[in-house]
């Protein structure tokens, strides 16, 4: 029996090593096998463990043998060799108490957080987090993701404070192309995007619920260095012009149409460089990587605040006529009640003190009533631009 139990014990140890490749334990295994113990006592101990406990206890027993060189083991093992049954029982009691202490330590570490009593009631003004539905709003990449989050997170917090039964999360994108892919596959629940993107999102089932900002603030700007020799559009021939994206309406499409109406063939007379963001388009001008850059008022104002030294060496040389500002859209499967609540909160922001302060801080102006029909004029503008200048799309 002792031989069989010892064989089972060694196999258990080997299984433990295969699943727990700890070098200390692994290196100690041969030592354990070579230790000599009185066979009857070892068999007696192992039989008790195998009879009364399961695998975890066998593992603890094995670890106890690992520390067999210690005094406490010899103190316990000595009575086991005496041959007196009452003494053996006392020794086994000490071993059992040691195991209880070890197990209690393990269980305390694994269960450090006491389970909540099932009959304990909790009360709250809001539903638990697991019951709150999360909605995402994706915002057109006016800035890099970090700056976009810093600019628009206060608006998200404002909405969430007034919508306690749901939570809205902001979603930023690294560039225009990745952003536009999101609404083409209908991922976000809400959108804040430029007028051309608004037309594209309508095709995939989004609808306008508001316009963000004054319409007069949505116009193209040309930025040049103050020490530049550029005076008229004709001076840009053979030069590089930087833009955030080929689909940026105010910062690329409208400026290119302006050049077109002033005698410049934007496909052959200049080199168009699409650099991914408004900051990059402006910074390319500052670094003299391009002769002029396209942007629109909000990013230019923010650039002046964040980079006053660089902005002091730049100026606006031309601007385009305004069109219509960015839209707020909602996907067509969002509950109508939620859609109306979000719309009402946005349109009434100017009627609350904290809403007014937030609008000033964001530098976006007010939110105005708008619907899909409000953006029909954009489609007319794009149709004319594509006939006379170039197709609108990523280049």
Mean pLDDT: 80
Query: Strands of the biggest beta sheet: in what spatial order?
Result: 2-1-3-10-4-11
| Outline | elongated
Radius of gyration: 36 Å
What composes the largest sheet? 6 strands, mixed
What percent of residues adopt helix (DSSP H or I)?
40-55%
Q: Tell me what portion of residues adopts beta-strand conformation.
A: 5-15%
User: How far apart, in Å, are the first and last alpha carbons?
Assistant: 81 Å
Number of helices: 16
Unreliable sequence segments: 1-40, 47-73, 117-127
Keywords:
395 residues; alpha/beta; six-stranded mixed sheet; 16 helices
Account of the protein in words:
Strands 2-1-3-10-4-11 form a 6-stranded mixed sheet, with helices on both faces. The protein has a 5-stranded mixed sheet with strand order 7-6-8-5-9, with helices on both faces. α5 packs antiparallel against α6. The protein is an alpha/beta fold. The chain is elongated and about 110 Å long. It is built from 16 helices and 11 strands.
Strand-helix topology:
Layout: H1 2-19, H2 23-34, H3 39-52, H4 55-66, H5 71-80, H6 85-110, E1 133-139, H7 145-161, E2 166-171, H8 176-184, E3 190-193, H9 195-202, E4 206-212, E5 221-225, E6 240-243, H10 249-261, E7 271-274, H11 278-286, E8 292-295, H12 297-306, H13 308-311, E9 314-319, E10 326-331, H14 336-347, H15 353-362, E11 367-368, H16 376-388
Parallel strand pairs: 1-2, 1-3, 6-7, 6-8
Antiparallel strand pairs: 3-10, 4-10, 4-11, 5-8, 5-9
